[in-house]
Specification:
Blueprint (H helix, E strand, L loop, with lengths): L15 E9 L2 E8 L4 E2 L6 E2 L2 E14 L2 E13 L9 E3 L14 H14 L1 H10 L6 H10 L10 E10 L3 E8 L4 E6 L4 H10 L5 E4 L3 H10 L4 E4 L1 H18 L1 H8 L9 H6 L13
Parallel strand pairs: 2-6, 8-11, 11-12
Antiparallel strand pairs: 1-2, 3-4, 5-6, 6-7, 8-9, 9-10
Helix pairs in contact: 1-2, 1-3, 2-3, 4-5
Length: about 290
């Protein structure tokens, strides 16, 4: 997902020309047309200037000051000049504006995808309504699933931990780059063989932080034998708290005996004066 350095009213002024605007209640329709004299065939990549017909597309764009914006694109169909091409007629592509057959511009899809990744489907829908972005939870989830995965280099310090796809039924493994604090990959289970395969396909890790589970230890040892294995801080603190708790539970009689208070003997008035706090002032009159 890319964002243009200088946002403009039109998604790509280099290939679109604004004809006129229509204002409706809470809606702006921008009539735009393409300005390129030719188009490239999507199959054979040959250029053509022979126009076959014209048609319009209505696509949603980013809102303006809370008003919904739609682009009415006046686009064209071309004849392919390559006789050997399987496609005789094609529609011009606007890759920087809208995907083929899409009903929203590319930049609007990018914004909705970011919202979906940030807050999810239901919350993303409520968040978008406040910004004039009308969408549905299912749309945001579809955009998340359709987003391209980002390739990450092999982390130098990798965190290995398990999680549950379904509580107490199915489990997976998450791998995190501890230096960049970003997730790197998800594994379909928490078996040692799966972790071994991933580490062998992504060599270069120097430190592996893991819990004390046997599968994680075995997978890290076989998949990256030269990497240093360390126990992560959370599990160390958890094990420490569990050990201290079990220790004090066994020492309940001793703790009760130590907390029993003995009655102190009553002190005289002179002793009471001698133990006054330091902040209590007193004065003595000389004879």
């Amino acid at each position: 997902m890319t964002t243009p350095p200088n946002p403009t009213l039109l998604p790509d002024p280099a290939c679109l020309h604004l004809t006129h605007l229509e204002a409706h209640p809470q809606l702006i329709i921008a009539h735009v047309s393409t300005i390129s004299p030719e188009a490239r065939c999507p199959v054979c990549q040959s250029r053509s200037e022979k126009i076959q017909s014209r048609y319009t597309r209505l696509v949603a764009d980013l809102p303006w000051m809370g008003w919904a914006v739609q682009l009415q694109l006046h686009t064209r169909r071309f004849f392919c000049t390559n006789k050997d091409c399987d496609r005789q007629i094609f529609t011009e592509r606007l890759s920087t504006v809208v995907a083929p057959s899409a009903r929203r511009t590319t930049r609007l899809s990018d914004v909705l995808t970011l919202i979906g990744f940030a807050v999810g489907g239901e919350a993303g829908t409520r968040f978008g309504c406040g910004m004039g972005l009308i969408t549905s939870p299912d749309t945001l989830l579809r955009l998340i699933h359709a987003a391209q995965e980002t390739a990450h280099p092999t982390p130098r310090v990798v965190r290995v931990d398990d999680f549950s796809f379904r509580r107490r039924i199915s489990f997976g493994t998450i791998l995190i780059d501890l230096e960049k604090r970003v997730p790197v990959d998800l594994l379909p289970d928490r078996e040692a063989a799966t972790l071994v395969k991933w580490l062998q396909e992504h060599p270069g890790g120097e430190i592996i932080s893991r819990d004390r589970g046997g599968d994680s230890a075995k997978g890290a040892k076989e998949g990256a034998p030269n990497a240093k294995q360390i126990a992560d801080r959370w599990h160390l603190l958890k094990n420490l708290s569990e050990t201290m708790q079990s220790f004090f539970v066994r020492k309940q009689p001793q703790l009760k005996a130590a907390t029993q208070l003995q009655e102190a003997p009553s002190s005289s008035a002179e002793e009471a004066v001698s133990v006054l706090p330091w902040h209590t002032g007193q004065s003595k009159r000389k004879a």
